[in-house]
Amino acid sequence: MLSDKDVVDSLNVARRIQRAFLPSEDYIQKTIPDSFVLFLPKDIVSGDFYWVEQVNDTILFAVGDCTGHGVPGAMMAKLCYQILDQSLKEFGMVIPNHILDKTLDLLSNKINVSNTNIPEGMDVALCALTGYNLQYSGAHNPLWIVRKGELIECRATRQGISKTPYPIPFEKIELNLQHGDIIYIFSDGFQDQFGGENNKKFKPAQFKNSLLEINNLPMNLQKIALENAFNEWKGEREQTDDVCVMGVKI
After folding, report:
1. pLDDT-based confidence at residue 44 (cuts at 50, 70, 90)
2. What SS3 class is residue 65?
3. Could you say which of 79, 84, 129, 219 is the most buried, measured as most Cβ atoms within 10 Å of its Cβ?
């Protein structure tokens, strides 16, 4: 029988493996210099992940939120990360909604082949940035843009990346950005954290206000400010879910 130490040691190895397949900080800073990623797993490993790739002049980036957390969530995160890669590199998809359509198809096929009936899947926000042109597609997870002190919300398609009997095509939103715009994509972990004086969820409205309050800071300081706000809200309470927030400044 494994001891508690053996289990923790195994999870720590799993964490190193998970961090190894995620984009490195050096790669992100080289590809998207004015950006940050706040990544706070609930447990040692995470069901959230972030994804960054470059194809010619187009930079693709995403935040995925897989069902569950801990080991089951991390296994699903690894699978969904690989399928995003496959959609891009094997099938040549570079338009966000096409990538999500193919990702949904590939995941459904894998589940069918394995003859399982698992309900797990992924919510995700996916962006393709070429100069000032932004294409976005989301599975449940929205895109927020802060422009000159105002927040613009782009809503996601109301469908996750999971086995579904009647899938619908994912929608694409295309925007012309302005210098100084900041793109935020994220999982729901920050907003769902319980805390504060009345032990309530942080909630989207409060999260929006937090981003509006810090948007004038350099991106590295925004990351620190968000993490401090999260920890202050959480206090001594247990973290509710995995947290991942990505910010990209134009």
Report:
1. confident
2. strand
3. 84
